[in-house]
Design brief:
Largest sheet: 6 strands, mixed
CATH architecture of the largest domain: 3-Layer(aba) Sandwich
Number of domains: 3
Helix content: 25-40%
Number of helices: 17
Shape: globular
Number of strands: 24
Length: about 500
């Protein structure tokens, strides 16, 4: 790690209409270090990094990279200065292959005219092998899981010559194994290539494991920059939220009652028509949380989509709240009394171009309509404003496009909408992905309060800590099959982990 700064933020401020997102921030990042930037949602982390990547021009202050003042704020200029950024929501072209995405913008040409597909694949394969980020260059991005798509994003940045790599919530879509692999690669590139890595994250354990130094932001201000070897997770958490983070014990209030969600010998096909869920039998009772643990890509997504009506069973039976539900549409399943928090909030959770209000009332439009035709806009906005406050959604307001919200606040909006339904059953996938520690505790309380109120909760999470903390029972899924069932109170993590990988 170089003692001299490679990046210097000097009195940077960024003001949006009605919001001071970054407030007079000054600090430096050294060449070759892994620097973590932490803070609650809306703290200004992503805004600051978007300034570094040239997506935003600061309202005030000066940004210096390698001793040169950053004047022309554009991603093209940032890339020319060796800066690459992997956003929380990926910027890949799904219909392109891995190789086409990696070389996009600097495609190899034959005779200076024709796209050289073989050269693109060769370049992508070599970079994949030398970096340790293994991925098939011929695979179509639309067919890849989120973990592999992230690898493609990183490889594209490396292919463009980046030696400053910004990663926005990089482990939000990764399994524990994929996280370990990513961290191993990042340590190696920082050490062997002298690359500077900037990590935006909410996961303090990962900060302590990977970063050399950490900057803490709160409400747009920089609270402190500290070396990780001289600070504890608890101290970091306190700086993020302004006080000690309370630890709460959650107790079940009532015993589980009748079955509300049931799959009988269920089979579900994946996007390519291949079996993704194979002969799964499970039942979730009212007043119970059943957690599904598994490495991403082992059928969890397809199982959840089948229960929510987004995917059709290819065999077996689905019953919801005592009624046959196989083949029902998502709207029909919602009408039965089932709410759904989807895995991918941007793709299936919200309409990014619609307003926050329209997203919060989605599914309840008739309640705000005159004769089922004309929307009572004032009533809809009043309802949205109440949810916006109750769920502490932070952004430009209820009239702003939902896509302008940060990832964590977008998740709060989805949770607010789904939890506002009087649901008897909840299907929840990755409820706190990309959400800060304060919001995680808030969402956990909501889930457990729903359980205590008698809801049946089917929970899928890549965060094993979350599965253990919330679940009453845990089942493990591997290759589309159930490989184990555990009482969450007595389960041993090593045994659950073994079952997740197909072990006995």
């Amino acid at each position: 790690m170089s003692a001299s700064p490679i990046i210097d933020f000097s009195h940077i401020s960024m003001r949006f209409p009605g919001v001071l997102a970054v407030d007079d921030v000054s600090f430096s990042i050294h060449g070759g270090e892994v620097f973590a930037l932490v803070g609650e949602n809306g703290a200004g982390k992503s805004t600051l990094m978007n300034i570094l990547y040239g997506l935003l021009r600061p309202t005030a202050g000066k940004l210096t990279v390698r001793g040169q003042t950053f004047v022309k704020h554009s991603p093209e200029n940032a890339i020319a200065m060796g800066i690459g950024m992997v956003h929380q929501h990926f910027m890949l072209i799904p219909s392109f292959t891995v190789a086409q995405n990696i070389v996009q913008g600097i495609e190899p040409r034959k005779h200076g005219l024709f796209y050289d597909f073989k050269a693109a694949e060769r370049s992508a394969r070599e970079l994949s092998e030398t970096s340790g980020l293994t991925v098939d260059p011929r695979a179509r991005v639309a067919d890849l899981g989120l973990g592999l798509q992230q690898r493609v994003e990183i490889l594209r940045a490396l292919h463009r010559g980046a030696d400053i790599l910004v990663l926005d919530e990089p482990t939000a879509v990764l399994t524990p194994q994929e996280t370990d692999e990513l961290f191993s690669v990042l340590r190696r590139v920082a050490r062997e290539r002298g690359m500077t890595v900037i990590l935006i994250t909410h996961k303090l354990r990962e900060v302590m494991a990977l970063a050399d130094r950490v900057g803490v932001m709160r409400a747009g201000k920089l609270v402190a920059v500290r070396e990780t070897r001289g600070i504890t997770e608890r101290e970091l958490a306190a700086m993020m939220v302004g006080d000690d983070v309370p630890h709460e014990e959650y107790q079940r209030e009532n015993a589980p009652s009748d079955i509300a969600i049931e799959l009988r010998n269920a089979n579900v096909a994946g996007d390519r028509g291949l079996p993704a869920v194979r002969g799964v039998c499970l039942a979730v009772r009212r007043g119970e949380i059943l957690g599904i643990a598994g490495i991403e890509g082992n059928g969890q997504s397809e199982l959840v989509e089948a229960v929510a009506g987004l995917r059709t069973l290819s065999g077996g039976e689905l019953r919801l709240l005592g009624r046959p539900a196989s083949g029902l549409s998502p709207g029909d399943i919602r009408a039965l009394g089932v709410a759904h928090i989807p895995e991918d909030r941007l793709r299936t959770g919200v309409s990014a171009r619609a307003s926050v209000t329209d997203n919060l009332i989605a599914g309840k439009q008739r309640a705000f309509s005159a004769l089922g035709i004309h929307l009572k806009r004032s009533a809809a906005r009043a309802y949205a404003r109440r949810l916006y406050g109750e769920y502490d959604i932070r952004g430009a307001g209820i009239d702003a496009e939902a896509g302008t919200l940060s990832g964590g606040n977008l998740q709060k909006a989805v949770v607010a909408r789904e939890f506002s339904f009087d649901a008897d059953a909840l299907i929840i996938a990755q409820p706190t992905r990309g959400v800060d520690i304060g919001a995680i505790a808030f969402i956990h309380r909501l889930i457990l309060s729903k359980r205590n109120a008698g809801c049946a909760v089917l929970l899928v999470s890549a965060d094993l800590d979350e599965i253990f903390r919330l679940s009453d029972r845990i089942i493990t899924l591997y290759d589309g099959r159930i490989t184990g069932e555990f009482d969450a109170k007595t389960a041993v993590r090593a045994e659950v982990g073994l079952a997740m990988t197909g072990g006995a």
